[in-house]
Design goal:
The protein is α/β, with parallel strands linked by helices. It folds into 2 domains: 144 residues, Rossmann fold; 93 residues, Rossmann fold. It contains 8 helices and 10 strands. The chain has a 6-stranded mixed sheet, with helices on one face. Strand 1 and strand 2 form a beta hairpin. Helix 1 packs across helix 2 and helix 2 runs parallel beside helix 3.
C-alpha cells in the first residue's frame, strides 16, 4: 500500500498538465532532461502540492540566492493562479530571482540573509498574511510522492541512479520509484541528514552552494551551474555505463 495515501495524493484535483520528462544519452549516461521544462523538476512537485491545498491563496518559500525552488514555485503559482512570495538574501539578484519576478513572484529581500534568518522572515510573513510556508527543499510527503510518480512515467527501471542532493527530496522520491536501484547523491550546501539521504550513498562536492561549476567540469547539456552540474565529475569517475542521472534544471 502506498504510504502517502493518508495525504490523499490520488484525490488531488489538478488541471495543469506538464510535459513528461525525456531521457537522452550522454557519454553512456541516461540523462533525464528536466532542464527542458521551465522551472525544472520541482515545478512538477510544487504544482501538485499547491493543487492539494485549494483553500490557500498565497504560498511562501525561503530561498538561498541561487536556489532553484524560487523559480519552480513562481511557475506553479502562476499556473494555478495563486500568489507567490519568496524571501531571499538582500543584494544582487541571481537570474532565478529575476525570472521569478517576471512571473509575478513577490520577492522580499532580507538583510543578513543567512538561511535561518530568511526562514524566520518567511515564517513571520506567513503569520502576518495568513499565507502558507512550504518546507525547506519542499520536504513534504506529497512533494516526494510527486517525484516518485514523475519517475514512474519514464517507463524505465535503472539499476543505478544519480542526483545532486541538498534536502534529499528528489533522491528519496526516486528511491521509492526504483527500490532495487543503487542510488548515489552528490551533496552540496545543506548538510543532508541520514533521514534525508535515505538509502543513497553520497559524495561531497568541493563547491559551496553559491559557487558555479567551472566550465571544464560541466556536463555536455544545459544544467544548473550552482546545482546539477556539480555532479558530473563524480558521474564520469564513478557511475556505471547506462546509469541514470536526473538533471533538475538549467
Amino acid at each position: 500500500m502506498n504510504k502517502y495515501l493518508d495525504y490523499g495524493y490520488d484525490d488531488i484535483e489538478c488541471d495543469v498538465e506538464l510535459p513528461k520528462p525525456i531521457i537522452q544519452e550522454y557519454d553512456g549516461i541516461q540523462v533525464v532532461r528536466d532542464d527542458l521544462l521551465n522551472g525544472g523538476t520541482k515545478r512538477r512537485a510544487f504544482t501538485m502540492y499547491i493543487a492539494s491545498l485549494p483553500h490557500i491563496k498565497e504560498f511562501v518559500y525561503a530561498s538561498p540566492r541561487q536556489g532553484y525552488a524560487q523559480l519552480s514555485l513562481a511557475y506553479a503559482c502562476r499556473d494555478l493562479d495563486r500568489k507567490c512570495t519568496v524571501t531571499v538574501p538582500k543584494g544582487k539578484h541571481y537570474w532565478l530571482t529575476d525570472e521569478a519576478i517576471k512571473l509575478g513572484c513577490n520577492i522580499i529581500e532580507v538583510p543578513m540573509g543567512f538561511l535561518t534568518n530568511i526562514q524566520a522572515k518567511a515564517r513571520y510573513y506567513c503569520e502576518e498574511n495568513e499565507a502558507h510556508l512550504i518546507p525547506f527543499g519542499g520536504d513534504h510527503p506529497i512533494i516526494i510522492e510527486a517525484m516518485t510518480r514523475t519517475a514512474l512515467t519514464l517507463g524505465v527501471s535503472p539499476k543505478e541512479v544519480w542526483t545532486v542532493m541538498s534536502s534529499g527530496v528528489l533522491s528519496r522520491g526516486l528511491q521509492n520509484a526504483w527500490p532495487d536501484a543503487k542510488v548515489y547523491g552528490v551533496q552540496i550546501g545543506h548538510n543532508t541528514t541520514e533521514d534525508e539521504i535515505g538509502r543513497a550513498e553520497t559524495f561531497r562536492s568541493k563547491y559551496k552552494f553559491h559557487q558555479e561549476c567551472k566550465e571544464p567540469e560541466r556536463p555536455p547539456f544545459p544544467s544548473s551551474l550552482t546545482y546539477d552540474s556539480k555532479a558530473w565529475t563524480f558521474i564520469k569517475e564513478h557511475a556505471s555505463k547506462g546509469a541514470l542521472f536526473w538533471n533538475v534544471g538549467k
